[in-house]
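It is time I had a proper look at our fold encoding. Can you supply me with one protein entry, sequence and fold together? It will help me judge whether the discrete encoding reads sensibly. Leave the record below and I will have a look:
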Amino acid sequence: MDTRTTVVPTFTVIFGVALLVAVIAAVVVAAVAPPAFAAIEKPPSFESVVAGDGDHLDAATRLAVGPDGTLYGCGSIWHDATGYDITITRYDDAPLGWTRTWNGAGRNADDSAVDIAVAADGAIYVYGSEAGGEDAQPVLLKYSSTGDRVWVAHEASRPWGYAGWIALDGDGTVYACSKEDNEESGGTIGVLTKYRPDGTVAWAQDYGINTYKPDMGSGHLCVADNGTAYVGGSVEGTDIGQRAFLVCFSAGGRRRWTRLYAGPGKMGAWFSTLAPFPSGGVYAVGAARSDASDILVTRYTAAGTRVLTRRLGVGDGRRQWASDAAVDSLGRIAVCGGWRRSGKGFYVVLLRRDGSVRWSHNFRGDNVSGFAKGVVVDTADRVCVTGNAPGTQGATYNPGRIATYAFSRTGVLRWSSLWPTALIPSNGPEPRDIAAYQTSNVWVCGSSDDRPGTGPDQFVIGWGL
């Protein structure tokens, strides 16, 4: 396996001089013609790129930060002897840093990691799918902070199933949601599973929607500290069309309530991400239908009452949608996604608790992949967002570079970054996740541009906040 890891010093004399020059230049330009933003272009201070065997698509899919600020990531990487394997990495200086790979049941099948979480005691949980197609089965892995595998738990799924998301409650208990084949009535069904610390199943509950042969779309999971679990997404049935849904379970596994979104633009709506409200309940964010599609932000109480409905972009004839959301300490929600408008499309907005706009920005984008894909809020309530800059359209479309923006509490752009510095023209990179630790660091992961000999590689890049 070809592994290339580069750590760029955060503070150097050269970088300090360059920074000073940039600041002076910005002041001079501002005196002549003040720009919309006075932010500084900030290169990553950390960069890790890892390639598997041959020219294959390798990806770092999700990030999680431990209680001490240590960064962990999961992903998939190609090995000629075993196919795609799950990777788990602790990003740290030697000898603390490590990478582990997992190949399901010794088979040469394609395994994939979709989510990762770190408990307060340092235990690492990785959720993924063993094999693929109609052989796929959800699998949960537990590792220690030193990289020792503690246990592997296979879900007792139907003929096939795909892993979705995991989340932890205040005690560090693991909840996992999956999408599985529904033998009884056709279509697919959602399953929420709660695991004990030793890897045994505390309970598993279906969360299918009452419709004819439902097809459960990919959704999201969030869990409150008290163990109340919310699962949301989209469901499609011949009698209801496509609708956004939200289901709530108690810590003991009892389904407390189920809601199909019944507000404006309900037909064709979906929830793509969930975020807990600080005093209880949950934000469910996605898109609703109108003349095209609009960003949809809703909030439900713990009892299942929808108390907020906000649509952005209603009636403008353009397509908008939400990719990700994060909540600050005041209960305000940062939402990112796409908003197609006159060469723009990379959209981020901060909404107050009542749904009014605190601030918003729409940067340059395109109609394919040039939009915002991940957002995070640090402990100072500052927002960072990542996605793709505009790509280029030749014989084939080539995504643009990874664009990352950091904002103040009031929405002023503090710095921005484009990675990589030189884009290989055959195919651009794809960001998959963004994570932050307190007010210290922010990281982005995904698959790199298509590199000669190795193809798209796993990458993680980071900056000091």
Notes: The longest helix spans residues 13-32. The radius of gyration is 22 Å. Residues 48-464 form a domain with the Methylamine Dehydrogenase; Chain H fold (CATH 2.130.10.10). The chain has one domain: 48-464.
